[in-house]
Amino acid sequence: MSANICIVGLGLIGGSLARSLRLNGFSGRITGVESNPHHCTIAMYRGLADEFLPLEEAVERSEIIILSAPVDINCLLLPRVLDLIRGTTKVVTDMGSTKADIAAVAAAHPARGRYVSAHPMAGTEHSGPAAAVERLFHDKVAIICDSGSSDEDALELITALFQSFNMHIRYMKSSDHDVHVAYVSHISHITSFALALCVLEKEKNTENIMSLAAGGFESTVRLSKSSGETWAPIFIGNSGPILEVIDTYIEKMRLFKTYIRNGDSASLREIMKSANEIGMILK
Predict the structure, then answer these.
(1) Which CATH number is correct for 3-172, 3.40.50.720, 2.60.40.1120, 3.40.50.300, 3.30.70.100?
(2) Virtual CA dihedral for 95, 49, 89, 92, nearest 10 degrees?
(3) Rounded to whole angstroms, how far apart are CA atoms 143 and 168?
(4) Among 128, 132, 145, 266, fewest CB within 10 Å belongs to which?
(5) Does the pTM exceed 0.70?
(6) Closest residue by Cα to residue 71 from 245, 239, 246
(7) Please, which residues bridge with residue 143 across strands?
């Protein structure tokens, strides 16, 4: 297949999509929409799109429109795009990591069927078009939400797009998706940010941080390099499930604090043994 595709937002996800689509031949012409002049310059230099146009012109020239901006911007853009494609066979999808808010925005629109709500479970701690890489999505999972609300041909087209990266498709309701990603993705970023702040507050000697940081610290704090511009809207948009997860996390931290204060080695070993069971899932 060779579809003309519009990508709105040429950051890590949008830019990597562009590179991957060029690699696998799924796309024909790629049109970029990018409001950040600096990002636009880098994206142009890297050849992430064949042309860069305002939203309305880009949608007019494309069969597939992919919203890859921060989640709050996607929510603002989706009704505009649905207005533009109403009555056509064009399809719009988004790559956002929260779904309940954008599902609510789309629900009552007359062109709701032309929208496919999606979340490819892929990314890195880096951001912007300079971070775009080929094969970011290869062999990863793509979640499609509320599939019954999308037209059959629209769903088939976006499914084919993800399968062109050899992605594995899973289906969920938007509300269930947001709870699951709060536990397996969003809390990981919050704890990484918190750990980085803790170290920066207590350890003023940067040479000590650099010389004593072992693999465990580096892997745990890696996500704290992620962009606040991307993650602040995610945390606010998914605040209900995230606050619930934070409460659970604090409860577990208090357990560790209590057992360490009391010198209770047996209880520490027991809860760490329970935590080890995650290895059976992630092996």
Answers:
(1) 3.40.50.720
(2) 20
(3) 8
(4) 266
(5) yes
(6) 239
(7) 119, 170
